[in-house]
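Sample intake sheet
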Amino acid sequence: MARRALTAALAGALLGAAAARAAYAAFTRRPPVGDAETWSRTNHRGEPITLLEGPAFVAGAGVAAAAVPGLPARVRAAALLAAAGAGGLGAYDDLYGVTTSKGFRGHLGALAKGEVTSGAVKIAGIGLTGLAAAALTAHRPADAVIDGMLVAGAANLANLFDLRPGRAVKVGLLAGAPLLAAGLRRGDPVAAALAALPLGASAALLPEDLGERAMLGDAGANALGALLGLAAAATLGRPGRLTALGTVAALTAASEKVSFTKVIAGNPVLNRIDMLGRRPPEQAPAG
């Protein structure tokens, strides 16, 4: 079983990485929707950047989920649903969303006034997507609810870190590595593959992110979080999943009150990790 788990993890990571790089190259030549300008945004420095990293991640992770050997059909379907659902809803917000309302409080406040924001549509849609993906893999209704909330909550939380180059990917790698290690330690090829495929796809796109040429956007960050939430659901026992869900909920609630960017900048260890591989604030982009 240990060898099968390692083989599944390597296959998931390599397939995800190769497919994500291929998708990014293809999308930069011909975007999936609109043209290059449709996906262009201004980053925190005021410089142009593309959101095409997000669709490339979704495509890469989706190809890996479809092609990695050894996944049961229901698990494969759950991974595809989590990636495509969260990624598609994130892309909708990337392309058509407005920024007048932010966070759960902002979107719910707008909803209370009769305004249905793109963010509210995304929150509801990702919630339903998470529950549907969890229903495919959970053994009991109670587990489906816990797992669905974990998938949806992780999708939202990952997006809250996508504010500086490479940050969301680094958080994803740090969160996913223990899940991958647990799957390998247990000799569980399903858990190992589910953790490995988003890690491979996101790591392959990290140079573009750190180089400030591209960013995950809502499409990529939501999909990354959803897949990691699904991996956690497949790897952890119920106490572990409840702990993970509580952590996700606490961090999401904290984001309404404090700035993650300020907290990270004020902590020497977190700031060092956050700046790893990034160019200094005064440095011009390469090329």
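Comment: The mean pLDDT is 91. Residues 45 and 282 are 10 Å apart (CA to CA).
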